[in-house]
Please model this.
Amino acid sequence: RKKITLATLRSLYKKDERITMMTAHDFPSASVADHAGMDIILVGDSLAMVALGMEDTSEVLMDEMILHCKSVARATRSAFTVGDLPMGSYEISPEQALASAIRMVKEGRVQSIKLEGGKEMAPTVAKITTAGIPVLGHIGLTPQRQNALGGFRVQGKSSDGAMKVLEDALALQQAGCFAIVIEAVPEEIARIITQKLNIPTIGIGAGAGCSGQVLVQTDMVGNFPPGRYLPKFVKKYGDVWGETLKAIEAYRDDVKSGQYPAAEHTYPALKDQIEAFAK
Ligand code: KIV
Ligand code: NA
Model:
């Protein structure tokens, strides 16, 4: 497959072909998403929870995001890559945000960045795009602001709320975002917003009317321990945790019983060598 660029994404959007996006946080998760033909791979700050075991995304640091961006970039041949700017790295000023975006591209080796927020972030988006770094917006439920939003709740349910999501989308488009993630917004609202924009929307918990979809890979492949709460919008396509558990249990049993390693996993020595050595 050819390398996906902004021009490719633009032409998918023009053709009305849905854009596929998936998170990845390391070399294997990026390599499998790339092989599966994802158009966009996002190094989401969700890695704080799904890969680093943190309580929420507010804890992950810029240096940690960069380390993971690098490993994803090394595995990605075709997909367009996006790095999530973590909380604290972009809210203070457009200058701070541009400095962080440059670090993520130069050190993290991703092709673009994502940041959370609506029209209040428009000057920041403009600043970053003017420097030649593409920006993906993120509106609706913005997890970095969960304390202010009162938790993980559907956004844009009231008509005021829906109007705010629309205004945010229009302001981000105007500021130069190449696409906008819309999270946890009723399907009809996200569909109308998508129709009113001339850049793609990427939905997560925003229904089928968006120009594309994104999911957190660990959630959709089922690579998490039992008891993890999954939002309503996640479809679990696999059971990677369960498969891995079975494999490791089988290994444990084989080692305990002496069945592993078998002859085919073992290096033979030469016969005369053994005889000389055993004396
Ligand atoms: O961090 C993340 O994984 C995200 C996606 C869910 C959009 O922001
Ligand atoms: Na994120």
Notes: The mean pLDDT is 96. The longest strand covers residues 135-140. The beta strands are 19-23, 40-43, 80-84, 112-114, 135-140, 179-183, 201-204, 212-215.
